[in-house]
Amino acid sequence: MAKKRPQTKAKRPQLDDAEVPVVGAREPCPCGSGRRYKACHGRTAAQATTALVQRPFEGLPGECDWVALRELVPAATVGLTLRDGLPEGVPSVTLATVLPMAWPALRRDDGSVLLGLQNDTASGDISRDLADTLARALTAAPGTPVQGRRAPADGPRLQDLLAPEGAFEPEVHSGFEFWVPDPENATPDVTASLERANAAAIPTVRLQGVDAAYWCETPDKNHLRWVMPHDEERLLDALARLHAAGRSSLGEGTRLVGSFRAHGLTVPVWDLPSEITAQDIEKPAAEFAERLAKALATDAPLTHDERRARGGLTNRQITLS
Fold this sequence. Notes:
Number of helices: 8
Number of strands: 12
Radius of gyration: 25 Å
Oligomer: single chain
Shape: globular
Strand content: 15-25%
Largest sheet: 6 strands, mixed
């Protein structure tokens, strides 16, 4: 008997990574490998969307304020400038800390866009997720919210959509009334959400004399939370030098108690007596900024007391993101 020849399948042409379309996770990968998409190019796509970007707001004007509005400030808005200008029918684009019903974005009846910052994101790059939400909000029908989704791995980031120049100056609000330009006609759901949000908001004020420093009032004491752009290790060294020298406070009754880590930046935190207002802390904060600048410029090795102070500051760090 003649031997059967082994059957062979014609090889499919291999595609470049950039040419491979997205398909269902269990479907054959379009690249022709014979494997399922999730075990082939889908794995690379998933890793691209879940890889954590340590400083998602780096390169944007006001990076420190972006971090503050994302993590520390209850109610604030700031106007955004698009790199390519406003599309027809969109009179303005405004970033907001929180939107009613936790919507990621909202296209108002007048066509203006509100982009929410304090929302859960589906990938490891907050900037890409926000850019995807913003792009969809710009084309949404007026009067409709925009829901969240996982942004495409090759989609634009905020750095691609927003103008790289110009000031980023948040306006801090005592409540969330900016949600509803016409409160009398708000839906019951939005009205209830507004009432809950206002009840939970902590009074917060942005200092005017230094960048990205926010005073807040709590029942027992007040605080100053100051987002700083410096390299973390160098900043901790500088804070330790000042702390060991007894120069890290912001005046009588105040003390540097630790710091947060948030989106690749360090946020020193001071406890303040309850009677100290935001206005009271303006001058001490400006004076501290001068002391810190000198400490940051020092390259001498830390002394024993400074190393001990640095260890205490490091032990009192809390990571927010």
